[in-house]
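hey so u asked for the seq, here:
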Amino acid sequence: MHTPQLTVMGGAKNDRMHLSAGFDDPADSLSGMLSLWARVGRDSTGMRRVTMSVLPSTVSQGGQNWRISSDEISIDTARVVVNDFMIRTDNQMLHVDGVASRSRSDSLTLRLNNFDISSLAGFAMGMGYDVEGRSNGTASMKSALYRGELTSDIGLDDVTINGIAVPPLQLDSRWDFERQRVRILINNRTTGDNIIRGYYAPSTGRYYAEARIEDMNMSLLDPILSGVVSGTSGTATAMLEISGQNRDASMAGSIEVRDLATTVDFTQARYTVPNATIEVEDNHLRASNVRVYDSEQNGGLLTMDLNLQHTSNISYVMRVMPRKMIVLNTTSRDNDLFYGKVYASGVATISGSKKGATLDIVASTEGNSQFFMPLSSKTDVSTADFVIFEKPGMQLDTMNYLERKKLMFERRNRTRTTGGSTMNINIELTANPNAEVQLVIDPTVGDIIKVRGDGTLNMRIVPSANIF
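ran it, structure tokens below
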């Protein structure tokens, strides 16, 4: 948490301490004052113990004022005793009370009353998901410090994920004494259908869950693939099984996708998939030879592999094999280095992870393609060293060498406006006479050179290194 205005005051004497901290972060509309006292000593058996209490404190964010307080909280080597720890507003409350120990006779209880779950979903926000909703109910754990036995009955209402409504849910868990594990059920309260069911065994760290999620909104893919695709729509039904032990998890099943549509950010080409089956095996989501169409219903094939082995760094490979499809559909506002509408046949591959993405295109032009490449100034086109005029028997003019170098320096160091893309691009495009290449010198006065013919266009773009 970034706190540009932080004040801390406190003091300690005779094994007692008092601490107060105030903070104010206008950028995030976050401010507060936290205060507590603590005492270090020993109980009647001589065991060292820390006793503390949260004095009336406040935290404000976005116009919401939270009040935090507790009676005594004592901590020793055997147990933690919590008395009336509360976080509340005028219409919300989170309350914790009880004893956490290794004994089954001790239990710690959580009570939620209309509590905003967005404050508990910070991990989702880090992945690009804004989770909102309300929770009501209780959860209790016996023997919380050793093979805890969890029982819960919590309802989730008005839940949205990135503005997409989720049906009201009921989380129910019960301890299975015979198998020494907790059973977990999540149900749709509107239909009564079971969405997730499974178990967790604290003694071994093993878990298993099976899920059936219907009509899942495919726009939830956009945060995962941010900077690669956007404007995703469509629905999916997922039937999945997740099993594992501790951090070692494995996912399997299948996902049926319907009416998927998405736009590739760099090329602005939009593609649709009427239906597809994604097979899930060993944490990989794979689809092969799926029919895909552009905005003019030209067809091709799509193959994908989404690797969820490491959820903190999801990786992917998507390969489109277009057949006379739109592969570039940009204007100068999208990309000032080059733009146009290009039809092509070949292979386009997008691969990447959290560390970055790469687009590789190997294709040949089709149809009535137009490709525009603006020059960086009004300098005569002959000074640009990527344009060469040749005539049989003539030597190349070398008088403008310094001017050509100046132009290259200008292009490499000017500010890019490539839509904020951080994707590395490699293009090998075989141009046929059906494609028109225009070198735009000064569009205000019509200074444009139009070219048709055969040739190969190779481009390499690395935005992070300012390479074009």
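The chain is about 5% helix and 60% strand. Residues 329 and 374 are 16 Å apart (CA to CA).
lmk if thats what u needed
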